[in-house]
Amino acid sequence: MTSIPEYVKEIINTLAAAGHEAFIVGGCVRDMIRGAIPVDWDIATSALPDEVKALFSRTFDSGIKHGTVSVLSGGDVCEVTTYRVDGEYLDNRRPSEVTFSGKIEEDLSRRDFTINAIAYAPSRGFVDPFDGRGDISRGLIKCVGDAETRFGEDALRMLRAVRFAAVLGFSVDGGAIGAIAKLRGNLADISAERVREELCKLLCGEHPQAVRLLHETGLMYYVLRGRAFGGELERVISWIEDLGGSDSDAGRPPLSLLLALFFSWTGGKCECILRDLRFDNRTIKIVSRFVEFLPKKIAESRYEIKKLLRIFPPEEFEDLLRLKEISQGGCLEKIRAESRDILARGECFTLRGLAVNGDDLAEIGITGKAAGEALEKFLDAVMRDPNLNTKEALL
Ligand code: ATP
Ligand code: MG
Predict the structure, then answer these.
(1) How many CA atoms lie within 13 A of 211 on its CB side?
(2) Which residue's CA is minimally distant from atom 2 of ligand 1?
(3) Which ligand has an atom closest to residue 112 CA?
């Protein structure tokens, strides 16, 4: 079991010394039991938000509507949330109101899966009313209570089930799978941002076979915002596995590469799907560029490589080669070596790298469109023969 950091213990102790209950809850308890390092440590407490704020000198209201106060301790932040129960759910996604509660068991019962509904405090041990520890040891993602009711309350939970399968390598309980088959259409009501977050976490998971589950449950269609998956599922899964395998030393592969493989079949449609999922512009640009160039053949000539270096920044070009090796097989080592050599020698492949600029052309009376065309011609010549990149030769 992973040990709890001192600052988290101190926060729990401070709350306890003031007569309140406090436990670590949710993902951090699950990860601690699995021996993994939790991303963040969340605390649930019987103290009301104002009582929490009164006990710590540095706090801010990070989600005060839901009873969450962030407590700062040194350079660390810990979210402290008052026990709560959710009211009636509206439109398959939001509780109409949240009510604070004095009982940890009530707080645990509003949580999505048994593995996420365990509380722990050093002085109290585990509070685990739904046998979350049993399900962790069985590798099972199971709803707290009736799956249909819980997915009916919040449709995102269906996608979260598949996401946890991808991250933890667990299987999803049969009852939950059956409930997804009935209720998957409700995912259409969930905001693109929340769906996107879960998709990203899913793709970054160490068990990309869960993409198959996404497909089999029919959730894929809603993740793609009302589009059918048009790729070869098993190939896409094995590419994502290969990408992860090739990155084993450096942690998980970058999201943009995972997205490029996942969306590799979309061709020109890639950009609108990413837009519908509210990805940021930078990600949309990088991923669509990868998807566009994935099927294109790269010639081994230095000239052709420079044309690509004009489009892709150097690291991205290396990433493109890696994606192509994974999706098309073969080894592009020669192209990789050539591109590195071009960069090492500082050979010119951009207008900015030319020995001549617009001002030089203006001096000899070439301006406007003609100047632009001349510079493009110069660049083309210089990309074929680097020796030409001097003022004298070009002018
Ligand atoms: P991660 O390691 O990815 O952060 P996590 O389990 O901490 O995983 P979060 O999304 O950070 O997941 O949520 C924290 C906790 O809040 C969960 O463990 C779960 O108990 C509860 N939770 C989050 N989202 C929901 C939801 N949609 N419905 C019910 N409970 C939820
Ligand atoms: Mg979390």
Answers:
(1) 28
(2) 27
(3) 1
Strand segments (E) across 158-282: 171-172
Q: What gap in Å lies between CA 11 and CA 73, rounded to an integer? A: 9
Q: Interior CA angle at 364 toward 362 and 367, to 5°?
A: 35
CA of 338 to the centre of ligand 2 (A): 44
What is the position in ligand 1's atom list of the atom closest to the CA of 111?
30
Ligand 1 atom having least distance to the Cα of 26: 18
Q: What are phi and psi of 197, to 5 degrees?
A: -55, -45
| Pairing mode of beta strands 125-127, 119-121 | antiparallel
CA 116–ligand 2 middle distance (angstroms)? 10
Give nearest CA residue, ligand 1 atom 12: 27
Q: Could you tell me the pTM of the whole model? A: 0.92
Q: Which residues pair with 95 in a beta bridge?
A: 89
Cα dihedral sign, 93-144-210-254: positive
As for ligand 1, residues whose beta carbon falls within 6 Å of it are 26-27, 39, 111-112, 116-117, 154, 156-157, 201
Provide the token pair at 94.
């939001």
Number of alpha carbons in the 13 Å side-chain half-sphere of residue 269? 14
Q: Which atom of ligand 1 is nearest to the CA of 28?
A: 7
Nearest to 82 by CA among 70, 95, 66, 94: 66
Task: Name the residue among 90, 138, 131 with its Cα closest to residue 113.
Answer: 131
Distance 357 CA to ligand 1 centre (A): 56
Q: Are strands 42-45 and 76-82 parallel, antiparallel or unpaired?
A: parallel
Q: Which of 25, 111, 128, 204 should be mutated for ligand 1, with most atoms under 8 A from CB?
A: 111
Q: Could you report the average pLDDT of every consecutive run of 10 residues in the chain (395 residues)?
A: 93 97 98 95 97 96 92 94 87 80 96 98 97 98 98 97 98 98 97 98 96 97 96 96 74 91 93 98 97 92 96 94 92 94 96 94 93 95 96 90
The number of beta carbons lying within 10 Å of the beta carbon of residue 204 is 19
Cα dihedral value 29, 33, 35, 37, nearest 10: 0
Q: Whose CA is nearest to atom 10 of ligand 1?
A: 27
Distance set, CA 214 to CA 28, 138, 149, 169 (Å):
25, 21, 20, 14
